[in-house]
Each structure stands twice: as structure tokens, then as C-alpha cells.
Amino acid sequence: MRSLRLLGLLCFGAVGIALISQYVYDMQPCAWCVFQRLLYLIVGSVALLATVGQPGKLRLSLTAALVVAGSIAGMTSAWYQERVAANTFSCAQTLADQIMTKSGLESVAPWLFGIYASCMDARVKLLGLEYAWWSMLMFALVGAIGVGALWTLTRQASR
Predict the structure, then answer these.
(1) What's the DSSP call for residue 53?
(2) Which of 72, 76, 77 is nearest to 146 (CA)?
(3) Could you tell me the sign of the dihedral formed by the alpha carbons of 22, 27, 32, 33, in that order?
(4) 34 touches 96 (CB < 8 A)
(5) Digit-coded pLDDT (tens) for 53-66
């Protein structure tokens, strides 16, 4: 259960860092950036909600599996952002753009989900590594912790 709380903190921390990057350092986000924010918030919320009350092993196992699936989605979106979208002049009409605009999230919470740059313009390096790779590494860490939690729960259940 501690690992799920840690996952929640990591995911919400990643969004916090993204907001600091945007509002303090003027790193404007693209559609794939804000889509990854959404994934972090979903994964973090699922992880934290699973720890409410007296969760059983089944609920914790399902949560860990959802965390792993969310981290795979996040790594895939970060990879796509860096390898494909960042090499195009526009992210318009990509999956991330459509999800963010058609869901209404971009207009309901523009401070969090507003798309203010193209993927090519949003290419920024932090400590020599592009921001999308940092996100991919964070999603990999989240996934690894999720796999570890799932492994631990599976071993406990088999005893």
C-alpha cells in the first residue's frame, strides 16, 4: 500500500513540475504534453484511491495492473511525442489533440490542459535530455513500482 501512495505522489509531483516549467520557466506545452499530464493525474488518482479504507488484495492487484497499463500508455505517448510529433509542424488532429479538445478539458481547465505550443516548438531540453524523455523515464519508474507492487501482492496471495 505504501508503494501506491508513493506512485500517487510521484504522478502528482510530475504534474507539479510540468506546471512549474510552464509558469515559471515559460515552457509552453503541446497536445502530447498535456495528454501526459492527464495520464499522470489518472494513474496517480487511481493509485491513491485504492488505498482508501481497508483495501483487499484483489483491489490492490487490480490497481497495480491499472498503474502498469497507464505507465505503458504514458511511455508510448512520450515516445510518440519525441519521435514523431516533435518532428512535425503541428500536433493538430493527433490523438492527443483530439482527446484534450473533444473532452473539453482544454477549455474547462486551460491552466492545466491548455495547448499553447506545437510539438516542434515545445521541444525543450532539461539537463541535456529532451523533456519528453524525462516524462518517459518517470512513466517507466511509475511502471516499475507498479510491477513491484503487483509482484509483491501476487507472492503474498500464493502463500
Answers:
(1) S
(2) 72
(3) negative
(4) yes
(5) 888 888 888 999 99
